[in-house]
Specification:
Blueprint: H1 3-11, H2 18-31, H3 34-47, H4 55-64, H5 70-81, H6 87-98, H7 108-117, H8 123-135, H9 138-141, H10 144-155, H11 159-167, H12 174-186, H13 190-202, H14 209-222, H15 225-237, H16 244-256, H17 260-269, H18 275-287, H19 291-303, H20 310-323, H21 326-338, H22 346-358, H23 362-370, H24 378-390, H25 397-410, H26 415-427, H27 431-443, E1 452-457, E2 460-465, H28 474-491
Antiparallel strand pairs: 1-2
Length: 504
Amino acid sequence: MAILHLHALIAGGGAATVPHLRQIHAHLLTSGRFPSLGSVLLRRLISLPDPHLHLPLAHRLLLSLPSPSLDLFNLLLPPLASSPDPSTAAALFLRLRRGGLRPDAHTLPHVLKALARLAPGSLPVVGSVHSEAVKDGLASAVVYVPNALMAAYSACGQLERAIQVFDEMPRRTVVSWNTALTACAGNDRHELCIELFAEMLEAGSVPDPTTFVVMLSAAAELGNLALGKWAHGQVVARRLDMTLQLGTAAVNMYSKCGTVSYALRLFERMPARNVWTWTAMIVGFAQNGLAQEALELFDRMKLSKITPNYVTFLGLLCACSHAGLVDEGRRFFHEMQHVYGIVPMMTHYSAMVDVLGRNGLLQEAYDFVVGMPVEADPVVWRTLLAACQLHSSKDCIEIVDKVQGKLLELEPRRSGNYVMVSNIYCEIGSWDKAAKARRVMREGGMKKVAGESCVEVGGRVHRFVFGDDSCPEFHGACRILHELNLNMRKCEPIDPFLFTDDAD
């Protein structure tokens, strides 16, 4: 078969299926023509619909070529970086470098995308790629290389390095700003996110829907309703399309800021909803003490043929916990695994312990933790300890001793565990054990972390820290609290539990 005819057969419509290409591949190998026509075969394979389905074959083809060019690597890296196994993209990049090729501006963004998905263990490679990009001038030549660098550093938990890349950019697009904002929000630096957004507006960059998704998320995490309302108002004023993502972010923000009725109105008006929209509303109901509404909405969700995800069930378990719906909690935990095939995460186990423990089923909660198929983390044990504190009696002292031993083994330096244990022993009259817990804290040099709360007044968030009287309104707030305390004493007896030291 002539080379020109083979070339036309591979590149043309006559070889439009994978079986055909496999036949041609076999012919090229047996005829010795694979070195000259293998690259054409690879390009044709990648051009087929759903290239991710043919990635293993394409990967083998590339690795079997004698001297593949950089553009062939660049052709395969994007689908590999988005594949279920991004480590193949990282390995291909290392193969490229060992072959003496220098990556270009088309190579690095996809490599960095793969490394971001492999975070945080990929941090050393991200640093190496960054150094190479600076050396070759790619870190400043095109914006999508530093954008990808920021995303990779952020995924590795290196926000400072991500912001450094951002600060060194000679030119920024709205994608650059959004990447930096997302990095701040993703690393729980929501105040910095707001500051950066203000800089974005001052720089004259025009926010897009993605910008406001991030800002609504930041407002939700901070509980800053004024900021959330402003961001939502900007979406309307700028006549931006209320996309599914934007609508979901707005529902989430209003729910987390306590205005559930407004969140529900938004939810009901949305023309389309996905699993995250339904979940945001269910979690919103749960967090605001509206358990029955959360369960009813879940029933509507199932009728709408939307498959719940792991966060949906977390919200349902939270609702059951606060409403004392133990049987429903057990049912949801079972349904999550055996109906929807969702493997419980540690947060689900902790939530289930809270469902049982908060409702006084301490022994069942302890047996549940002991019977977990994975080793319980400190949060799970601490949740059980908090339940013991809520229902403290001499009947639970054996469980407290066991939980204390496990927590001291996992977190020997966490002062809050000692404080909780000491408080429980005090409440049940075990003064010697309470004193011992305090003594261990004192001798270990551990101090209780100061309690902290915040309140939003007039669009400003005011923080209050135990022992800090530097706030200008401190003495006025104390007078009001004293008056409230006197009025409460007139109404009902004081529960001594309210005045017990809380754990951090």
